[in-house]
Amino acid sequence: MNHLYFHQFEPKSANGPLVVLTVQPLLLLGAVAAPLSFSSILETYVVFILALCSSIVVYRLSPFHPLAHIPGPTVNKITKLWGAWVSSGGDQHRVNKALHDKYGPFVRTGPNEVSIIHVDAVRAVLGTGGFQKGQYYEPRTDPTLSTRSLLTLRNEAHANRRRIWNRGMSSESLQEYESILAKRVTQLVDRLEGLCGTVDIAEWFSYFTFDFMGDMAFGGGNIAVVSHIPWLVPTLYKIPMATRGLKELRQFGATCATNRIKTGSQVKDLWYHLMDEAGMEKEQPSFAEVVADGVLSIIAGSDTTAIALSSFVWFILSNPEAYQRVQAEVDSVYPDGESLLDISKHSELRFLTACLNETLRLHPPVPTNGTRQVPKGGGKLIADRFIPENTQIYIPPYSLHRSPGNFFPGPDQFDPDRWLRKQRPDDVLNLAAFIPFSAGAANCVGKSLAWREMLMVSSSVLKKFELRFADDFQSKDWLDKLQDVFVTSIGGPLLVELSLR
Ligand code: HEM
Fold this sequence. Notes:
Layout: H1 2-8, H2 15-31, H3 38-61, H4 74-78, H5 81-88, H6 92-103, E1 106-110, E2 113-116, H7 119-126, E3 132-133, H8 155-168, H9 171-195, E4 197-200, H10 201-218, H11 222-226, H12 232-237, H13 243-263, H14 270-274, H15 287-318, H16 320-333, H17 350-362, E5 372-373, E6 379-382, E7 385-388, E8 392-394, H18 397-401, E9 407-408, E10 428-429, H19 447-464, E11 465-469, H20 475-480, E12 483-485, E13 487-489, E14 495-500
Parallel strand pairs: 2-8
Antiparallel strand pairs: 1-2, 3-5, 4-14, 5-8, 6-7, 9-10, 11-14, 12-13
The chain binds protoporphyrin IX containing FE (HEM).
Binding site for heme: 444
Pathway: Secondary metabolite biosynthesis
């Protein structure tokens, strides 16, 4: 009965079911007027729980389950706990890929969850008319607040807030941000110049992106200080999990926002648009909404770009030929005396762009991403497979990008030329399957900004410095230690030897 009931009316929180399930065995004992002793209570609980679990396990493994036709490991079909345990170790992307290698493009990764790397699923699930965000995003909202950030909004509420964000990321707005970006890139290069020798370059990319996004979201000044306080940076990295960190960050966001309002800004920064200071909307967004989105921009815009830049350095230092070619290209596009901050030349950086694309393909900063949910109404056909309503679906970029059906030859190899060469008969370069910034209505709103950052920082660093892995640095370990905690988390320093050219 319990199984049937909770299957029909899926609870949103474990609290209610826990109370109901705890009380029921006692009520049963009372109903049959059994003598109350420790052993009779224990026995009743054991029988009750075993009966309930058996019923759930048998159903989830049975051919009557609507996802019975999707292959996957037995443990995944029975429980999500295993998946949660894998995620907690940061290995979700690697495990997910191993599952796809074994079971094919559709894998049942949970009792009610499917991971798909068939290219047709990208459009069906993420594209126009695709599905809304799934249960995965709920823990990312604070139930004590009435407001949500753009990331966790759905349907019309998402479209309304996204309109404001899109204004903040239009080409006109991006032009306005150029001076902020140029200032921070110059500062980064100056600081690195002063540090020549062994440097943890990943750490400095992280400082740069935090400082830059702080400028964008809250008019700067304060975040620069925070990003150099070591205890806060790890907290920011763990933000999806740690409510304490989330509260601290929100508090911090509110303080920055109050300062931003007091001091104003010389340029139309992202805050200007998110707060709708131009008065384009019928209703101005609330202070709480803008703080939530300001904090989101720092979370979404800092770690992602920093890890992309760090992985890029790792890949080119591991591929000396690519390093020489990319450096030569930067030298020819920006000969001595030309400003490295001139973004009009970015389109000429074709090999650098290919190297960055290849980096984002092999190590997308959001490797697995969150789930989407099949809407009510019976179910949907996705790449010719029927998937029932309410199923949680992953379209994991890491596995999608490394599938030979989508990128061939050498899907696991760093081969920037795949983006440039004329396609040969056996080559596969499936652009529809390349989704480091996701796809559709809830794709990355900061994609163009991220590209400007990546190109300006990478070309400046390549032009100014000679880089190599530091002596005794175990470079292979660095890549293996990258952890998938929604946005990739860096497991250790990326030590390079920097010298001025
Ligand atoms: C290389 C850098 C970046 C990568 C790879 C990246 C990737 C992504 C991905 C995969 C998503 C979709 C997440 C989901 O479906 O849950 C996303 C969403 C988002 N990104 Fe980025 N991102 C990057 C940089 C940035 C930057 C610089 C910003 C600037 C503010 C930004 C702001 C956002 C926002 C606000 C969302 C939520 C969009 C929505 O839900 O409508 N990202 N990003």
